[in-house]
Every structure is written in structure tokens, then in C-alpha cells.
Amino acid sequence: MSGIGNRRDTMARNSNERFKAFCEIAKTRSILSVGISVFQKKAKNGNDVENNSDFLVQTFNVMLLRKDSFMVEPASLKFLLEHGFDFNTHYAKAIPYSTPQIKETKKDVNTISELFFEILRSSKPIVLHNGILDLVFLYQNFYTDLPSSLSTFLADLSVMFSAGVIDTKYIAEYHIGCSATYLNYIFKKR
């Protein structure tokens, strides 16, 4: 993301205020890349897929370049650089996209939006880490304008992702009781 906003606003104690802050961020910043991992359960012996835990995993990092203007935050750009994000490759090879609010001509296929709708049609659960901001960004950038109320947003998500949304940060914090919940820590702790 090109920015994640003012931490004070995004950590508001009132969930409706927090949602409003997230909406403002998603409307003014951009998604720079999307990581997608697809899991397929493999049968180990014979065709017994249900009783084993071997998976085939394919992971893709899709770099995106929003066509209209958006804000960038220096702290976010610095974070991305420190974690290996290559802005030269990004601007040279990223897939251009328009938000649903920008009307495209028929010849301009919005590939990433089509991929997003294909994921929705698959009716598979999605797994995110600290996913509420991700969901707000996905909704605004690939689905439609964000609703004004948190309750409408949550109702829409329950229809969009009918198989469920799993948040690994929530699991780490509230079910496992990890002292830190950033991904690198959780991965190394296991």
C-alpha cells in the first residue's frame, strides 16, 4: 500500500470511527502489490484427500499500478524499500488498474478486478494477516465504493466471502496469545 494513514486514527477505540479512517485511507492511497497463495490439498496414499495434511501451494506476487492519482506516505515507501520492494521494477512492469469508480472503455480490461471477482466466485475462504485494512482496500479498489457504515461493510463481506475470512493476526493475538503478532515473529516462533 502506498500508505496506511495516521496510526492514532486507525487505532480509535470506537470501531465506527476506525472504519471511517480506514475508508479515507483506502480512497486516497493505492494498492502497490497483492500476494496470493493458492492451496490445493494433495492425496498422499491413494485418493484419501480428507485425512492428510499435504498441500500444493503456489504463491504469486502481483505488482499493481493504479492509473489515477493517489497519495504516498514517505514512511510507507521507506518500509517497502527496507523490505526489498523494487520501485524501478514496479513502475516498469506493474499491471495497471483502475478503481471501479473510474469508467473504462471496453478495450481496457481491468485484469486485477477480474481476478478479484474470480476469487469471490470460487467461494473459498481467504486468509489475511491484520486483514481489516486489506479488506477495506480490496473493496474500494476492486469492488465498489465503500459504504458509509461499518455494519453494511461487514454484511457485504459476509456475502462476498461466504466461505469465511481468517485473520492470522487475530488468531495469534487472541487464540494463541503471542506477545508479538507481526508475521516474521509468528513464522519464526513456530
UniProtKB/TrEMBL annotation:
Pfam families: CAF1. GO terms for biological process: snRNA 3'-end processing. InterPro entries: CAF1_poly(A)_ribonucleases (IPR051181), RNase_CAF1 (IPR006941), RNaseH-like_sf (IPR012337), RNaseH_sf (IPR036397). Coiled coil: none annotated. PANTHER family: POLY A -SPECIFIC RIBONUCLEASE/TARGET OF EGR1, MEMBER 1 (PTHR15092), TARGET OF EGR1 PROTEIN 1 (PTHR15092:SF37). Belongs to the CAF1 family. This is Target of EGR1 1 isoform X2. It comes from Paramuricea clavata (Red gorgonian). The lineage of its organism: Eukaryota, Metazoa, Cnidaria, Anthozoa, Octocorallia.
